[in-house]
């Protein structure tokens, strides 16, 4: 029976954990901001991009560089950029599969990218200010409100009245303030979706509202 000194045991344990590791430590996609922000423990992400963005490249980095990574079935080295991936109008799902070096573990990360077909022309809030300032081709925002602000409402604007708008899955008319959305202390996630009636997939704007504690 093989025996180990304390130092050798720790080294052997670390080596085993690395070879057994199937996690990513980072994930980057050209011209795309994923939601939520990347964490090795979160396996599904969403993003919205402008209609003019037709291709992206993915750079996945494994916690153990000798793990095997496949992006949409094509093998690439950890930390390297993939070939161009075409984005359809609507949702395109990018699949990143990571297999540990010892082939005993596998992790799958999915990024659902919505290529916009319709955009808001404006968006205002009843309290606070969007950061960054609203831009039809920017899809992720944050804002902070004081502790005494218990609800918030948004007024969306579109150039075509036929467009369907939803704020937290409730319909809102163009140039009309939404129903108040209740705010908990801390971070509150709000989504604004826009689409034409015939569309299956909506363009999504993400707003993270932080209500300060007392």
Word description of this protein:
It is a single chain. By secondary structure, the protein is mainly beta. It is 7% helix and 43% strand. It contains 1 helix and 18 strands. The chain has one helix at residues 6-19, and strands spanning 24-29, 44-49, 55-56, 58-62, 68-71, 74-76, 85-86, 90-99, 106-115, 122-125, 140-145, 151-152, 154-157, 164-167, 170-171, 181-182, 186-195, 203-211. The strands form 6 sheets. A 5-stranded mixed β-sheet has the order 2-9-8-5-6, with no helix packed on it. A 5-stranded mixed β-sheet has the order 11-18-17-14-15, with no helix packed on it. Strand 17 (186-195) and strand 18 form a beta hairpin. It is globular, with a radius of gyration of 22 Å.
Question: Layout of helices and strands, plus pairs?
Answer:
Elements: H1 6-19, E1 24-29, E2 44-49, E3 55-56, E4 58-62, E5 68-71, E6 74-76, E7 85-86, E8 90-99, E9 106-115, E10 122-125, E11 140-145, E12 151-152, E13 154-157, E14 164-167, E15 170-171, E16 181-182, E17 186-195, E18 203-211
Parallel strand pairs: 2-9, 11-18
Antiparallel strand pairs: 1-4, 3-7, 5-6, 5-8, 8-9, 10-13, 12-16, 14-15, 14-17, 17-18
Q: What fraction strand?
A: 35-45%
What is the structural class? mainly beta
In DSSP terms (H or I, runs of 4 or more residues), the helix count works out at 1
- Main beta sheet: strand number and arrangement? 5 strands, mixed
Helix content: under 10%
| Low-confidence runs | 7-11
Whole-angstrom Rg = 22 Å
Overall morphology: globular
Order of helices and strands: HEEEEEEEEEEEEEEEEEE
Distance between the termini: 62 Å
Q: If strands are numbered along the chain, what order do they take across the biggest sheet? A: 2-9-8-5-6
What oligomeric assembly is this protein in? single chain
């Amino acid at each position: 029976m093989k025996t180990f000194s304390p130092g050798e045991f720790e080294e052997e344990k670390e080596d085993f954990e690395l070879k057994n590791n199937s996690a990513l430590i980072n994930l980057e996609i050209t011209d795309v901001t994923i939601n939520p922000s990347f964490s090795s423990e979160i396996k599904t992400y969403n993003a919205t991009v402008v209609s003019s963005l037709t291709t992206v490249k993915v750079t996945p980095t494994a916690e153990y560089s000798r793990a095997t990574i496949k992006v949409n079935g094509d093998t690439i080295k950890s930390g390297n950029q993939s070939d161009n991936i075409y984005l359809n109008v609507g949702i395109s799902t990018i699949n990143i599969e990571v297999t540990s070096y010892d082939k005993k573990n596998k992790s799958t990360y999915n990024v659902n990218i919505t290529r916009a077909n319709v955009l808001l022309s404006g968006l205002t809030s009843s309290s606070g200010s969007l950061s960054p300032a609203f831009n039809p081709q920017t899809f992720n925002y944050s804002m902070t409100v004081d502790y005494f602000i218990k609800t918030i409402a948004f007024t969306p604007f579109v150039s075509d009245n036929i467009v369907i708008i939803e704020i937290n899955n409730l319909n809102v008319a163009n140039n009309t303030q939404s129903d108040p959305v209740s705010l908990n202390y801390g971070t509150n996630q709000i989504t604004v979706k826009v689409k034409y009636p015939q569309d299956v997939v909506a363009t999504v704007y993400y707003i993270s509202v932080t209500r300060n504690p007392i």
